[in-house]
Write a structure and sequence with these properties.
The complex is a heterotrimer of chains A (about 325), B (about 775) and C (about 200). Helices cover about 70% and strands about 0% of the residues of chain A. Chain A is an all-alpha fold. In chain A, helix 6 crosses helix 7. Chain B has 24 helices and 27 strands. In chain B, helix 9 packs across helix 13. The longest helix of chain B is centred in the N-terminal third of the chain and has 38 residues. In chain C, about 15% of the residues lie in helices and about 25% in strands. Chain C has five helices and eleven strands. In chain C, strand 4 and strand 5 form a beta hairpin. The termini of chain C are far apart. The chains are: A mainly alpha (about 325), B alpha/beta (about 775), C alpha+beta (about 200). Chains in contact: A-B, A-C, B-C. Chains B and C meet through helix 2, strand 3, helix 3, helix 8 and helix 22 of B and helix 1, strand 2, strand 3, helix 4 and strand 11 of C. Strand 1 of chain A pairs parallel with strand 11 of chain C. The structure holds ligand MGD (2 copies), iron/sulfur cluster (SF4) (5 copies) and molybdenum atom (MO). One iron/sulfur cluster binds next to loops of chain C.
Chain lengths: ~325, ~775, ~200
């Protein structure tokens, strides 16, 4: 029999006093998604395949607001919002968060340039409803950027990868939370981000483009599953704390969302749908469209589970 | 403009070059200036923005002033150094020169700042407008409030005699209201709760047995002690600063610790021997210990021969009171009783059963305390190093006022030998104390709880007025309903307090006092191994419309026609006059660190001329002639206390480390630490009753009274025949915004008490409660 | 070089909580927040019980995991081994809170992060930490670990045992628990936990 009395509130007994909350999970998801979009779209453009023009444009136009939404999430989680600017008057080489804030800035810049390429062809711009003073700089910048499109594509790949990797590195450089203590977390979030980006563009593009993306989607799913397996393996074979931490993915409240939403819903089900499609079996359009939605939910769920469950694990 | 000059410069005619260069240089200067301004300004902006919303810590706000004083967060009164900046108190530290604090303070002492700035404090005099208890008041000026009190006191005095006004007082200004004013006014009915609700049995037992008082600062010679025995005395929960310091140091030095407590108290956790005794049976244990010490010849023969009398009677008395006899009574193991007696004896004379403090438990408490001192004498510990030293009061004259109308005030835990005279002091109309001393109990200072009945019955004579200074009468005196009935009967109830405590609603006039950090006060002169004197000065001016106690006493005295006793101008004048008797004044005392220490006379060897023992024979009376003469047992006898009826548990209570009695529960920082009390139930009892840890339950006493909802603490630390709670919670005062309605009140559950026939102490562990799911 | 450290003698501590209140007052710690907390553990069955009281605060780790994660340098380590926070630089991103393996940091209601500072401002004045200076039992000792004559070194040298909480974090805490009888853990399986506070 052990009786423990704790006097004095503290983060261990009252986690709400101190730790990260859901906005961080959303932020990490959006960071991965935007990073994925940047990579995906750049790769597609570099291949110069017109089938994906629509996909490229969707990605170019959505990535920036999604990144902004991510920043809003980060901002929401800051407990000292007045000091948000402090991120940008310093660079702390050991801090993933510091790297991340600068990467976000660069990513934002790249995305503005990318968006300026795709913006002129949008309906709003074409309709001429935008005032001249707005339209002129956009076209000017767009022109400048289009001329350096290849460089921009490569920059997108590098910065996008950095962004998506960073979302994992942020967690895995915090050894105090053993669930995050795995080198696999960064590549996992990267792959999951690219997969989510694929799913995201699939929501908008033509059936033909969608079909041509399926093999890529399947390999990403498979790769992600492999990385999750590797994540488990690193933790199981790591320290006592990391193997104990894995237990949290077995029970309530994190086990069910992880296995149902992330693994089954987000990976296995879409994988089987897409495999069927690949084998030219007839798949009802509703089911076909469900796959990317499920993947996006699963990808977000992965961040939620890893972030929130990880906060509950202690060394 | 300038931009053009610069861009054009290379193409300019030579004639223009001078001008251009000048412009260029000017530009450079401007640019450098602008850059510098930008850099400095930018840094200023960054710094300024960075500081936005971050408060400056108090210790960087300005000059820190320090003021000496003594703590009043509990009656122990440690010396303090108060740190303030710009008229705001920020931190209180112990005064290193003070023999009680030695630079350290307990949690409550540290919380003085929070007590001072409690927003719920009484802020202005109040005069009652509604029923007693309804809490309807109007604000009044001091002038009006004091005139009102004086007029009504005078009326009672004229009609019934001054004896019919009772004075209850505690906290550190209590001298003004339990001694100075009542004696000047002419009432022998002045009482402190620290006597009959606390220490009376141990003081009377000490006076009867040793002819010496224990006094407010228990004379335990912790410095060299090697075996510490505690009966109750829950050090660590009872957080008297010095006691914790001394106990911890002694234990770290290797002293053995024996703890007798039905509960696994904090200090039981530090014990070498814990005896989880059945409550109420300590006297049996003590007698068995005496039996072992005598039959195994472990006692100090020489000491007994030289310094005690009545040994043979004692030996005969305990001959059959063996550990085997005591074991079933106390629910202890006979072998453990033997082992502990031997451990005590092995360390003698550096071995002491520490005189407890709150000892009013079962009504037979003076006899239990006598048994304690008998053992201390058998161990040869009294007057010996590492045992019990002889405390000495510092030299210090009282203020040279004319002889008081009544000789002898409330007395208290620091009662001096000799204060207990044969004749009771009489009031101006020839009446002695109304508390039943000499009829219902033998002796001792005025018993506060015994003054309640005369307010109701008018016997032996009516008490019609009550001045309550710093006593929490609904929490400190058992039988709260009886107290309320008494208050309904009175013509005048005055409450002098700092907080809207539960009883404030029942006062006719409420006088808000300034706290100990805002006022001067009388000196604090402590009977001690090293007798000492310390003083109090305000660290800040009184907050709100509050006044110091001395001022209130004086203003009342003057209005009552007692000017002759109040020749002093103010407290400083009064204190300086007293200090001059020892060649000091406030300034000099302040300069020398706030404390004046005098030499003591702690050990037997310091008494060569006369005996340190004030008994008629000058010896420790193992068998007491005084008691025999009064027809009482000359030797301690174990009397069983009534057992709880089926389904009931004995209600025990004690202290919480961060709270003082019922007065600090509202203090924000302490409220935060321990907002409400819990009722401790043994795991087995809880399982039987189906009560889970942490749920709210209700306690119901044998009269059906319930003390409010309280959380269950289910624990292995309790015996099965009792429940335990911390005293002082369960406030019922809307204006105590933190404390109101939090936890349960032990006092409310005490429907009765057991009067000690010797000391007049109110035994408060005779309450039985049921535990109901809430 | 100085390495400030503290020792907390669980055998000597009487659980009086003077340290908690001294800390709150000295450092103006807001209501419902603490830089220092108390953990009382009782193990066994009546009447065979063992009790221990432990005070927990930032350990000023020698290799503090909370420092490198800070994106602004608000959390930093001094040459004397103090781990401090400059609220003026703090964004409230809580990376450090997440990175502390001991749960010793909290969000100040003002937004910035706060925790035990070993009372660095008192050290500047030549005083000890407020919690140490007031501790009535002398259960707390403070000083320079490198100096064998400092109170902390003397306390450690005189102790039966000296341990740090959960050394597997490799953070190397500078707070040493002396004379523990119970295993130094964050509570046991199946234990009854009471959280006390308003
Ligand atoms: N924090 C704090 N400290 C205080 C005070 C305060 O208000 N707050 N008040 C001060 C004052 S004025 C006083 S008088 C003292 C009071 O403190 P003490 O003198 O220590 O009071 P006791 O009643 O001896 O101790 C209470 C203990 O007695 C145990 N007990 C109950 N019944 C019995 C019994 O029948 N036999 C035995 N052997 N033990 C029993 C209880 O379990 C509890 O552990 O505390 C002083 N110190
Ligand atoms: N049920 C029960 N009854 C008990 C005890 C118990 O444990 N249980 N303990 C007994 C013991 S040991 C003792 S010593 C007594 C203590 O009895 P009390 O001294 O009555 O106890 P407190 O609750 O501290 O009440 C102090 C009162 O003084 C007020 N006060 C505080 N500071 C000041 C000030 O500066 N000036 C003025 N004028 N007032 C002030 C407080 O607000 C409060 O109303 O209680 C005894 N009664
Ligand atoms: S024991 Fe604590 S509350 Fe009592 S006087 Fe000393 S410091 Fe103040
Ligand atoms: S002040 Fe000292 S004795 Fe009291 S709880 Fe803190 S460490 Fe323990
Ligand atoms: S205890 Fe936590 S906050 Fe303190 S130095 Fe170590 S890691 Fe940092
Ligand atoms: S919360 Fe403040 S101190 Fe902590 S890591 Fe973020 S910026 Fe640094
Ligand atoms: S060292 Fe200072 S800040 Fe740290 S716990 Fe002690 S009093 Fe609080
Ligand atoms: Mo008392």
């Amino acid at each position: 029999m052990t009786e423990t009395d704790l006097t004095g509130l503290n983060p261990i007994t009252h986690p709400e006093l101190a730790t990260w909350e859901w906005p961080v999970a959303v932020y990490l998801f959006l960071g991965g998604l935007v990073g994925g979009l940047m990579i995906l779209v750049a790769v597609l453009r570099l291949r110069r395949d017109r089938t994906f023009d629509q996909a490229v444009r969707i990605a170019d136009l959505w990535a920036l607001p999604l990144l902004a939404a991510g920043l809003v999430m980060l901002f929401l989680d800051l407990s000292y919002k007045l000091h948000a600017w402090r991120f940008f008057v310093t660079f702390q080489v050991t801090s993933a968060m510091s790297w991340g804030s600068w990467i976000l800035l660069v990513a934002g810049l790249v995305l503005i340039l990318r968006a300026s390429i795709s913006l002129p062809s949008t309906r709003v711009m074409a309709s001429g409803r935008l005032p001249r003073w707005l339209r002129r700089p956009i076209t000017a910048v767009g022109g400048w950027a289009e001329a350096r499109s290849r460089t921009l594509d490569w920059a997108s790949i590098v910065v996008g990868a950095a962004l998506a990797l960073y979302t994992g590195i942020l967690l895995s450089t915090i050894p105090a939370r053993p669930l995050w203590d795995s080198v696999v977390l960064a590549p996992l979030f990267l792959v999951s981000g690219v997969a989510a980006a694929g799913a995201f563009v699939c929501l908008y593009i033509s059936a033909e483009a969608h079909r041509r993306l399926i093999p890529v989607a399947i390999s990403l799913c498979a790769l992600e599953l492999a990385l999750i397996a590797a994540f488990f393996a690193t933790l199981a074979l790591g320290t006592k704390a990391t193997s104990r931490a894995l237990g949290i993915l077995g029970g309530w409240p994190f086990g069910a969302p992880f296995w149902v939403v992330v693994i089954a819903g987000g990976l296995l089900v879409p994988l089987s749908i897409e495999t069927s499609e690949l084998r030219r079996r007839s798949v009802p359009p509703a089911v076909s469209r469900a796959a990317p939605v499920l993947k996006l939910i699963g990808s977000a769920g992965l961040r939620f589970v890893i972030v929130l469950a990880g906060l509950q694990t202690v060394m | 403009m300038t931009e053009e000059t610069v861009t054009n410069a290379p193409n300019s005619a030579p004639a223009n070059q001078g001008l251009t260069r000048r412009t260029f240089l000017k530009l450079m200067a401007w640019g450098a200036g602008a850059l510098a301004i930008a850099a400095v300004g930018g840094k200023a902006v960054v710094d300024g923005l960075g500081r936005l919303g971050i408060p400056t810590p108090w210790y960087r706000k300005g000059q820190i002033t320090t003021t000496y004083g003594y703590c009043d967060m509990c009656p122990w009164r440690c010396g303090i150094v108060v740190k303030s900046v710009d008229g705001t108190v920020h931190k209180i530290d112990g005064n290193p020169a003070d023999p009680k604090s030695r630079g350290m303070l307990c949690a409550r002492g540290q919380a003085g700042v929070s007590f001072l700035y409690d927003p719920d404090r009484l802020k202005t005099p109040l005069i009652r407008t509604g029923e007693r208890g309804a809490g309807e008041f109007r604000e009044a000026t001091w002038e009006e409030a004091l005139d009102n009190v004086a007029a009504r006191m005078t009326e009672i005095g004229e009609r019934y005699g001054p004896e019919s006004v009772a004075f209850f007082g505690h906290t550190s200004g209590d001298g003004w209201f339990t001694e100075y004013l009542p004696q000047a006014w002419g009432s022998p009915n002045a009482a402190r709760p620290s006597s009959s609700l606390c220490t009376s049995p141990r003081e009377e037992a000490a006076l009867i047995t040793m002819g010496r008082a224990i006094g407010g600062h228990e004379p335990v010679d912790w410095d060299g002690i090697e075996c510490i025995t505690l009966i109750g005395s829950h050090i660590g929960e009872d957080t008297r600063n010095t006691v914790m310091q001394d106990f911890a140091a002694a234990r770290a030095r290797g002293a053995a610790v024996i703890v007798v407590d039905p509960r696994f108290s904090t200090v039981a956790g530090k014990a070498d021997h814990w005896l989880p005794i059945k409550p109420g049976t300590d006297t049996a244990l003590l007698l068995a210990w005496i039996n072992v010490l005598i039959t195994e010849e472990l006692y100090d023969e020489e000491y007994v021969a030289e310094w005690t009398e009545g040994f043979d009677e004692l030996a005969a008395h305990v001959a059959d009171l063996t550990p085997e006899w005591a074991a079933p009574i106390t629910d202890l193991d006979a072998e453990q009783i033997r082992t502990t007696a031997r451990a005590m004896a092995a360390a003698r004379p550096r071995s002491l059963i520490v005189p407890g403090r709150h000892v009013t438990w079962y009504g037979n408490d003076t006899q239990r305390m006598r048994a304690v001192y008998i053992i201390d004498a058998l161990l040869g510990a009294i007057g010996r190093q590492g045992g019990m030293y002889f405390g000495k009061s510092p030299y210090l004259d009282s203020y040279p006022h004319p002889p008081f109308v009544v000789a002898g005030g409330a007395g208290g835990c620091a009662a001096e030998p000799g204060e207990e005279s044969e004749d009771l002091p009489l009031g101006p109309s020839g009446k002695a104390r109304a508390d039943g001393v000499r009829t219902r109990f033998l002796r001792g200072p005025t018993a506060m709880q015994e003054l309640i009945e005369p307010m109701i019955s008018g016997e032996p004579y009516p008490i019609k007025g009550l001045v309550v200074y710093g006593v929490n009468i609904f929490h400190s005196i058992p039988m709260v309903e009886r107290t309320k009935e008494a208050l309904r009967n009175l013509d005048l109830v005055v409450a002098i307090d700092v907080l809207p405590q539960d009883h404030i609603d029942w006062a006719d006039v409420v006088l808000p006092e300034a706290t100990y950090l805002e006022r001067h006060d009388d000196l604090w002169a402590v009977a001690h191994k090293t007798p000492y004197i310390t003083f109090r000065e305000p660290a800040v001016a009184p907050l709100h419309d509050t006044k110091p106690g001395w001022w209130i006493a004086r203003e009342l005295g003057v209005r009552l026609g007692l000017e002759r006793f109040f020749a002093w101008e103010d407290a400083e004048d009064y204190v300086n006059t007293r200090l001059r008797s020892v060649g000091l004044d406030i300034d000099r005392l302040r300069e020398q660190g706030g404390v004046a220490v005098q030499p003591g006379r702690p050990y037997l060897e310091d008494f060569t001329e006369e005996s340190p023992f004030g008994t008629p024979s000058g010896k420790i009376q193992l068998a007491s002639q005084v008691l025999a003469d009064a027809g009482l047992d000359p030797l301690p006898v174990y009397e069983p206390t009534p057992e709880p009826p089926d389904g009931f548990f004995r209600l025990l209570y004690g202290r919480h480390p961060v709270h003082t009695f019922a007065k600090t529960q509202n203090t924000p920082v302490l409220f935060n630490l321990y907002p409400e009390n819990e009722v401790w139930l043994s795991t087995r009892v809880a399982a039987r009753l189906g009560i889970r840890h942490g749920v709210y339950v209700r306690l119901v006493n044998t009269e059906g009274v319930t003390g409010g909802e309280v959380r269950a603490k289910v624990t292995e630390r309790m015996r099965d025949d009792a429940v335990y709670m911390v005293h002082g919670h369960g406030h019922r005062s809307r204006r105590l915004t933190n404390a109101d309605g939090r936890g349960a009140s032990d006092a409310e559950l005490m429907a009765g008490y057991a009067l000690d026939p010797i000391s007049g102490g109110a035994g408060m562990r005779v309450t039985f409660v049921r535990v109901e799911a809430a | 070089m100085t390495r400030y450290a503290m020792a907390s003698d669980v055998e000597r501590c009487l659980g009086c909580q003077a340290c908690l209140v001294a800390c709150k007052t000295e450092n103006e710690v807001p209501d419902d927040r603490y830089r220092l907390r108390m953990r009382e553990t009782v193990v066994g069955r009546f009447p065979d019980l063992v009790a221990e009281t432990r005070l927990e605060q930032c350990f000023h780790c020698d290799d503090p995991p909370c420092v490198p994660v800070c994106p602004t340098g608000a959390t930093y380590q001094t040459d004397d081994g103090l781990v401090l926070i400059d609220p003026e630089k703090c964004t409230g991103c809580k990376a450090c809170v997440t990175a502390c393996p001991y749960g010793m940091r909290y969000v100040h209601p003002g937004g910035w992060i706060d925790k035990c500072s070993f009372c660095d401002h008192r050290l500047e004045q030549g005083l000890g930490p407020a919690c140490v200076d007031t501790c009535p039992t002398g259960a707390r000792a403070f000083g320079d670990l490198e100096d064998p004559s400092s109170p902390v070194s003397i306390a450690i040298a005189g102790a039966r045992s000296s341990e740090v909480l959960n050394p597997s974090t490799e953070a190397e805490p500078s707070l040493f628990y002396l004379n523990c009888r119970l295993p130094l853990t964050d509570g046991e399986e199946g234990s009854v936990l009471s959280e006390i506070g308003a």
